[in-house]
Amino acid sequence: MKRIVIMGGGKLAYYLIESLRDQDVDIALIEQNAAHAERIVNRFGAVRVFIGDGTMIKVLADAGCRNADFYVAVTGKDEDNLVGCQIAKKHFNVKTTVARVNNPRNIEMFKRLSVDLVYNSTRMLADLIEHNIQYEGMQVVFNVRDTPQYIVEVRMSAKSKILGKALQQIKFPGSTRIVTITRKDKTSVIPTGESRLEAGDVLLLVTEKKDYDDIYQLMVK
Question: Is residue 56 located within the same domain as residue 130?
Answer without folding.
Answer: no
